Amino acid sequence: MRIADIFKQYVQHLFLGKRSEARQVVLAAHDRGVSAAKLLTHVIWPAMAQVEKLYRKDRISRVAEHMATRINRTVADQLQVLLVRAPKTGKRMVVMCGEGEQEELGAQIVTDLFEAQGWSVWFVGSGIPDDEVLELVGQLEPDILAVYGAQAAEVPGIRRLISLIREVGVCEDMQVLVSGGVFNRADGLAEEVRADLFAEDIAGVLKAVADNPVRIPKPDVPEPGRRRKRKKTKAQAKSRKAAVVA
């Protein structure tokens, strides 16, 4: 069965709150040879993204969003145990996230997949004071500090934390990666907060880290608070172009 078909079946059960059926779709696929990593990357993650998108657009109710998120979390926990694990690489990562169940789930998947690739990962969640983050980073000297799923209200704090890390020089070779949440919805925001890496989804996160093994400092620092343009859909772009021509 194609991964797209597995995803379709899974989502159908997910939005109806059918825990057993949704879980069985994924575990049956694993029994047929689909790896846990592939299921997390191409089924659970996009299902999570779809739940978030539909809820933000008021296409699903709060109860449907809550049920779907918790089913996703349960299935992700089960797949974590089934991941094939590579030998330790010596690479280290600290993972933070925005407030909320969806944000924590995304950060958990990031944690699980990098651990499976041989990384040592510390998942600290949300709401950690800057001084404690600095202390942890100084102790662990991670290669990556990943921040997943921040919302708009949390951006000033992330900008402040990254600036503090760079000013103090606590871990100069550490790269800061941001993904999800408002960073997926506002063009240029990742650069504005001085993040080293950005990716919209888990496949992009894995690729960005693999393609950028060392930090390359960026000399150009955008001014904080500059105006950004939200990402436009193709339909919006086409409509605007037609208006200009007319």
Give a description of the structure:
With 246 residues, this protein is an alpha/beta fold. 56% of the residues lie in helices and 10% in strands. It folds into two domains: 80 residues, Methionine synthase domain (Methyltransferase, Methionine Synthase (B12-binding Domains), Chain A, domain 1), CATH 1.10.1240; 120 residues, Cobalamin-binding domain (Rossmann fold, 3-Layer(aba) Sandwich), CATH 3.40.50.280. Strands 2-1-3-4-5 form a five-stranded parallel sheet. The C terminus is likely disordered.
List the SSEs and their pairings.
Layout: H1 3-14, H2 19-31, H3 36-56, H4 62-82, E1 92-97, H5 101-116, E2 120-125, H6 130-140, E3 144-148, H7 155-168, E4 175-179, H8 182-185, H9 189-192, E5 197-199, H10 202-211, H11 234-245
Amino-to-carboxy terminus distance: 48 Å
Q: Tally of extended strands?
A: 5
- Please tell me what the overall shape is: globular
> Which bin fits the share of residues in helices?
55-70%
CATH C-level category of the largest domain: Alpha Beta
Number of helices, where a helix is a run of at least 4 consecutive DSSP H or I residues: 11
Can you name the CATH architecture of the largest domain?
3-Layer(aba) Sandwich
Proportion in β-strands: 5-15%
Query: Largest beta sheet, briefly?
Result: 5 strands, parallel
The CATH topology of the largest domain comes to: Rossmann fold
Indicate the mean pLDDT: 90
Strand order of the largest sheet: 2-1-3-4-5
Rounded to an integer in angstroms, the radius of gyration calculated over CA atoms is 19 Å
Uncertain runs are 222-227, 240-246
Order of helices and strands: HHHHEHEHEHEHHEHH
How many domains? The number is 2
Q: What is the CATH superfamily of the largest domain? A: Cobalamin-binding domain
Structural class by SSE content = alpha/beta
